[in-house]
Specification:
Helix content is about 35%, strand content about 25%. The chain is α/β, with parallel strands linked by helices.
Amino acid sequence: MVDVAVICGSTSDTPVAEKVFAVLQEHGISYDYQVISAHRDPERLDGYVKASDARGFIAIAGLSAALPGVVGSEAGRPVIGGPGRCIHTRS
């Protein structure tokens, strides 16, 4: 079992995910990482969320921001939605 499932809607959201990984690692929180689009692959996303044993989810979405809502509708566990590539982050 992992503590958190981190899901990005696109590989272009990876820079934000890497910042999430750093914080999770700093606190000793286990995680699984997947790139699954709510728009392009909804069946795969649904299957992943339903099969996941994670205690919670972090969904990083781009411009449409649909991913956190879709994950939340299936998860039955806490979901944190975060902005992806549409927000400029500083190093």
